Automatic annotation (TrEMBL):
Gene3D superfamilies per UniProt: NadA-like
Family matches, as HAMAP family: NadA_type3 (MF_00569)
GO CC aspect terms: cytosol
Subcellular location: Cytoplasm
One of the protein's GO biological processes: 'de novo' NAD+ biosynthetic process from L-aspartate
NCBIfam families membership: nadA, PRK09375.2-1, PRK09375.2-4
Organism per entry: Bacillus aquiflavi
Protein name: Quinolinate synthase
C-alpha cells in the first residue's frame, strides 16, 4: 500500500463534540437523521452490540442473518453497519455499487479475524498442497478478512457461520477428502466432532511456526486441518466455570457458543450459534435456569428480556467483546451526521477483484442455507 493510500485509509478520530453530548441529545440526533433518510438508510446490528446501539438497529441478527439481509437489501443508499469490520466488509461485497457501507468506528475489528492474514494463508496452502496435493477444500468462518474469503472462493471453497457450519463442512467433505478450516480452530473442531470425525483425524496448522501439529500415527488420515486461531472472548469460558455451576446450581443448564474450547462444549448441555442460544432461551420453560457461555452484551440482554428465567453468565467475570463495544452512540451519531452532510466517512470498500472472488465463497454458503 502506498503512502497516499495509507493517509486516505487512516481512520478518522471522533470529534470531542460527540463525547460531550448527553445520551438524550445523541439519541435525538440519531432519531432525526433516521427519520429524514427513511429506507435510504439501513442500520443492521449484531446481537453482541450494546443496547444503546441495538435500539436504533433496523434489524438485529447473527452473522448469517445479517449477511442474508445485506444480500437482499437494494433500497438503502447507506448501510451503517453496527458490528465489526469483517461484517461490514461482507455487507459491502454483497450489496450493489450504488450502496455505501459505513462502519461507525474503524477500530471495531475482530481479534479472531486478525489471526489469519492472507500471506500466512498462501504459505500454509503451498505447504499443505505439497503434503496432500489437490485433496483439500478451504472453508473460512465469516469472521475473516475479505482477502481470506477471496482466497477461499478462488480455491473452490465457501464461507461458514456458526449457524451453518455443520452443513458446510458436510458439503466440503463430499467434494474433497479433507478441509482446511480458517481461522477458528474451536468452531472447526466442535463442528467436525459433531459430524463424527475423530480428534485423531484433525490436525492444527500453526501459522507462526508454519507447521502442522498432529498427534496421530498417520498424517495421511487427517480429514480436518484447523487454523490455530480463536475468539478471545469465547476462550474465556472454562471447564472450571462449568464445574462451579454444576456444584453450586446442579439443576442449571449450561449452553455455550461453539467458539468455546472443545472440552467446554463437550461438558455443556447444549451448544449452538448466537441465534440458537437466543431461540433456546426463548423456548425454555418458565422458572428454568441457564448459564450462558457467550458474549456479555447478549447475555445481559437475555437476562433483561427473560425475567421469568434465571440466567447467568457461565463465567461470572466476563466482559463484553471490546471491539464490538467500540460502536457506541457518539460514533453512530457521528457517522449519521457525516451522511447528512453528504460527506460519509469510515466507508468500507473492497476492491472489485477481491470482492468478486470473496462473493463466490459467500454465495456458495448463502445458496446452501
Ligand atoms: P455468530 O453471529 O455467527 O453466532 O458469531 C458470533 C461471533 O463471534 C460474531 O463475531
Ligand atoms: Fe471477534 Fe470474538 Fe468479538 Fe466475535 S466475539 S467479534 S469472534 S473477538
Amino acid at each position: 500500500m502506498d503512502i497516499l493510500q495509507l493517509i486516505k485509509n487512516e481512520p478518522k478520530t471522533i470529534p470531542a463534540y460527540y463525547r460531550q453530548m448527553s445520551q438524550e441529545q445523541l439519541e435525538q440526533k440519531i432519531r432525526e437523521i433516521k427519520g429524514v433518510f427513511g429506507n435510504k438508510l439501513f442500520i443492521p446490528g449484531h446481537h453482541y452490540q450494546r443496547d444503546e446501539v441495538i435500539q436504533f438497529a433496523d434489524v438485529s441478527g447473527d452473522s448469517l442473518q445479517l449477511a442474508q439481509i445485506a444480500a437482499k437489501n437494494r433500497d438503502a443508499q447507506y448501510i451503517v453497519f453496527c458490528g465489526v469490520h469483517f461484517m461490514a466488509e461482507t455487507a459491502d461485497i454483497l450489496t450493489k455499487d450504488h450502496q455505501t457501507v459505513i462502519l461507525p468506528d474503524m477500530r471495531a475489528g475482530c481479534s479472531m479475524a486478525d489471526m489469519a492474514d492472507i500471506e500466512q494463508t498462501e504459505r500454509a496452502w503451498e505447504h499443505l498442497q505439497r503434503l496432500y496435493a489437490d485433496s483439500i477444500l478451504p472453508l473460512t468462518y465469516v469472521n475473516s478478512t475479505a482477502a481470506i474469503k477471496a482466497f477461499v472462493g478462488k480455491n473452490g471453497g465457501a464461507t461458514v457461520t456458526s449457524s451453518n457450519a455443520e452443513k458446510m463442512v458436510k458439503w466440503a467433505l463430499s467434494l474433497k477428502e479433507r478441509i482446511l478450516f480458517l481461522p477458528d480452530q474451536h468452531l472447526g473442531r466442535n463442528t467436525a466432532f459433531k459430524l463424527g470425525i475423530k480428534l485423531e483425524e484433525m490436525a492444527v496448522w500453526d501459522p507462526h511456526e508454519e507447521q502442522l501439529l498432529f498427534e496421530g500415527d498417520d498424517i495421511k488420515k487427517v480429514k480436518v486441518i484447523l487454523w490455530k486461531g480463536h475468539c478471545s472472548v469465547h476462550e474465556n469460558f472454562t471447564v472450571e466455570n462449568i464445574s462451579e455451576v454444576r456444584h453450586k446450581e446442579p439443576t442449571m443448564k449450561v449452553i455455550v457458543h461453539p467458539e468455546c474450547q472443545h472440552e467446554v462444549v463437550r461438558l455443556a448441555d447444549e451448544s449452538g450459534s448466537t441465534n440458537y442460544i437466543i431461540k433456546t432461551i426463548e423456548k425454555a420453560e418458565k422458572g428454568s435456569s441457564w448459564a450462558i457461555g457467550t458474549e456479555m452484551n447478549l447475555v445481559n440482554r437475555l437476562i433483561k428480556q427473560h425475567p421469568d428465567k434465571k440466567i447467568i453468565s457461565l463465567n461470572p467475570h466476563m466482559c463484553p467483546c471490546l471491539t464490538m463495544n467500540r460502536i457506541d452512540l457518539p460514533h453512530l451519531a457521528w457517522a449519521l451526521d457525516a451522511i447528512k452532510n453528504d460527506q460519509p466517512h469510515n466507508v468500507i470498500h473492497i476492491d472489485d477483484d477481491t470482492a468478486s472472488k470473496a462473493k463466490l465463497a459467500l454465495s456458495r454458503m448463502l445458496e446452501r442455507t
